[in-house]
Amino acid sequence: MTMPQISQADQAKLQLMQDMEIEMMSDLYNRMTNACHKKCIPPRYGEADLGKGEMVCIDRCVAKYLDIHEKIGKKLTAMSIQDEELMKKMSG
User: Fold this and answer.
1) pTM
2) What angle do CA 23, 24, 26 make, to 5 degrees?
């Protein structure tokens, strides 16, 4: 079975999409890390390792951050679909 050939334009679009996805995930990770660090870890470190309370706080913070990120993504996708449907109705 042979793989279909992808045009250079399609390859460029795919590469751009991949680069954007990496940038968005990197931004999400950086924002989440900064927010959870600020919330859960005191500015003056008492020990090199995280304490149990800090670990629990970090776990909960990351879980909430990712949950909210997913919910916002779903809402934006639904809004985008609604906008597309509205535009089709208006132009058709």
Assistant:
1) 0.68
2) 65
